[in-house]
Specification:
This protein has one helix at about 105-110; strands at about 5, 10-15, 20-25, 35-40, 45-50, 60, 70-75, 80-85, 90-100, 115, 120-125. By secondary structure, it is mainly beta.
């Protein structure tokens, strides 16, 4: 049974930083493309970042480029999202997701390809 468990969310002031982690189990982690999504109240879930199986390629939403960094450790079965220069509009529940399909960046910016999802962790940025 595949499980994804996010951690690291919390309350931070605008301009601050948070580091989210996602622990993966129940499947071979290195065969999965990993992504981060977020959902703000009253809005649809939106893409944040994704990372290829080897970790050498990444893709980001324009809204987080230059501020967020996705990385993975295949030995520890974890994916992280380092979030810097946080803004109030980054407030949302953040979800990690796993995709067993091919690395096609435009495809990975939608929720549809992802096979497994975590329960989410709340990030609140106060202005």
């Amino acid at each position: 049974q595949v499980q994804l468990v996010e951690s690291g969310g919390g309350l931070v002031q605008a301009g601050g930083s948070l580091r989210l982690s996602c622990a993966f189990s129940g499947h071979t982690f290195s065969t999965c493309i990993m992504g981060w999504f977020r959902q703000a109240p009253g809005k649809e879930r939106e893409f944040v970042a994704a990372i290829i199986r080897s970790g050498v390629s990444t893709v980001y939403a324009d809204s987080v480029k230059g501020r967020f960094t996705i990385s993975r450790d295949n030995a520890k079965n974890t994916v992280t999202l380092q979030m810097n220069s946080l803004k109030s509009e980054d407030t949302a529940i953040y979800y990690c997701a796993a995709d067993l399909g091919p690395w096609i960046p435009v495809r990975l910016t939608t929720t549809e390809p992802y096979d497994y999802w975590g329960q989410g962790t709340q990030v609140t940025v106060s202005s």
